[in-house]
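Subject: for your reference before the review

Hello V.,

The reviewers asked for a structural picture of the protein, and I figured it would be easier to keep everything in one thread rather than splitting it across files. Below is the amino acid sequence we used in the manuscript, unchanged from the supplementary table.
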Amino acid sequence: MSRYEEARVKLEASPRRWLVTGVAGFIGSHLAERLLSLGQHVTGLDNFSTGKRENLQDLLSRVESPARGNFHFIEGDIRDPGSCAAAMQGVELVLHEAALGSVPRSMENPLASHQNNVDGFVNVLLAAAQARVERVVYASSSSVYGDDRESPKVESRLGRPLSPYATTKLVDEIYADTFARTHGIASVGLRYFNVFGPRQDPFGAYAAVIPRWTEQLLRGERCTVFGDGSNSRDFCFIDNVVQANVLAATAPAADVTDRAYNVACGARTDLLHLFEGIRDHAARHNPAAAESALVHEAPRRGDVPHSLANIDLAKQKLGYQPAYDLARGLGETVSWYAQRTQRTRADSEPTLDLRPAERTA
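And here is what came back from the structure prediction:
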């Protein structure tokens, strides 16, 4: 039995009380769904600045009816200390996903990135310390490696950040380390490498490449790549990220806390090959996608040319073993987007009560 399976068995036998910030977002909604399916008690916090109400409806539709009663939603903002304090009541473990993502967005509005990603994170840490929370697992990013040219990326070697977003995530890691010593709050950072999967927003100027290309291919629209397509990434399916969070929250504290770990697959794919993979899967649902080709535009400022993770530390300390490679993850992702428009939400999903009384900010 893997350490992840062991953790799931223990949680089912002895449910815990969790807070998931950014619960209406792509990653946060998947974390809440998995926890509820394991019989856990989950409080979710979100201000819907980037999260979607339909993500909450979708996650609740995928868990058994009794488990839905274990979910309590608070509409609030991590930039507001009162929202954080209210959300921490009775909580044992925190999975902190709320943030303002996107390198290009941070280049255009660095102040907003700082306010959400740094000020908000400090509010979460303070509230967690005051509530005597057992552990905070927080989302960091592979962007903290910056201009480090060595590959694969190892946790002990960082470069200089190349964007305000990267800087905010690096500052978060510094704050987490400081609060461990000054406020006694144990934490684990997870440096995500290009997470993808169902529920990821394919629209807007800051959409990630996999959902954007998937939606465009299924709609018969053209796809754009910034640069010549040789940039490469370590793409990681959402189920691997869920596994890493559960392990980081439940592993013995002396072994894992107060440090950051790479969360990825340990395999690099360039954007040209990524496009071919998405196109092949999309063509099964829309045959016209097979004839699609990329349109090239100028590279974007702040983008890192190549990103590949060494995941040995996460394997050793957390017991992390990614179950999905890129090909398997793409298959499930493209199928989800293709089927999305065929779903009849009114018949299959419960109604989430978001009354004004639940608002704390």
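For the response letter, the relevant points are probably these. Residues 110-130 form the longest helix (21 residues). DSSP finds 15 helices and 13 strands in the chain.

Happy to draft the paragraph if you're swamped.

O.
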